Amino acid sequence: IDWNDVRKHKYGHLSESASQYQEATDILDLGHFTWDKYLKETCSVPAPVHCFKQSYTPPSNEFKISMKLEAQDPRNTTSTCIATVVGLTGARLRLRLDGSDNKNDFWRLVDSAEIQPIGNCEKNGGMLQPPLGFRLNASSWPMFLLKTLNGAEMAPIRIFHKEPPSPSHNFFKMGMKLEAVDRKNPHFICPATIGEVRGSEVLVTFDGWRGAFDYWCRFDSRDIFPVGWCSLTGDNLQPPGTK
């Protein structure tokens, strides 16, 4: 499903109503799994859209494979590194830090503040750093950086999006349904339920998986989405587990 086609539909212009996300899933059938049927069968309610730190209208993804950008090293958050787009799905990018290997790939939304155009670090008085576990000798970093950027396709500024604001507080309640990144297999987004609420944190439980993949996260985590998000972005929502 192409995002640009979806946004033209009457459900594409979203308000804060979670019911509109649910209605969107009536149109965009997710294989054998549809949220509308699933919510009725489980007598569940979707978490309202205002619970999430996500854009009410999902951002378009105009990035391309091999484009270069600056990204925060997820294993060393004080470092800004050069990253290459190695995968695309929905509104997310699979990124690989230049000088690292494919075992440390990570995913970011196109409207994440942790990714910026090339030159942003220098403009703000910073210096690009080698990633944690840089494969070469640290003294070779400047020459490596020069070779990496020479002739590379830089992601243009216009395709980056401003990060949405956080909700004012934690609006989640136990039992609410949502879509969530499987952190053990982060290329997957799956149906999930709020299992517990504790202060600013929520327990994300994956439907049909007996707790093997559950995790705690802040209420404003970028890894959790409203029901219907994948339908609108064209991402692939995994069906619930069978256990």
Give a description of the structure.
- The chain has 243 residues and is α+β, with helices and mostly antiparallel strands.
- It has 2 domains: 37-54 and 166-233, SH3 type barrels; 67-159, SH3 type barrels, CATH 2.30.30.
- It contains 6 helices and 10 strands; from the N terminus they run αααβββββααβββββα.
- The strands form 2 sheets. The chain has a 5-stranded antiparallel sheet, with no helix packed on it. The protein has a 5-stranded antiparallel sheet with strand order 9-8-7-6-10, with no helix packed on it.
- It is elongated.
Task: Give a brief rundown of this model.
The protein is α+β, with helices and mostly antiparallel strands and 243 residues long.
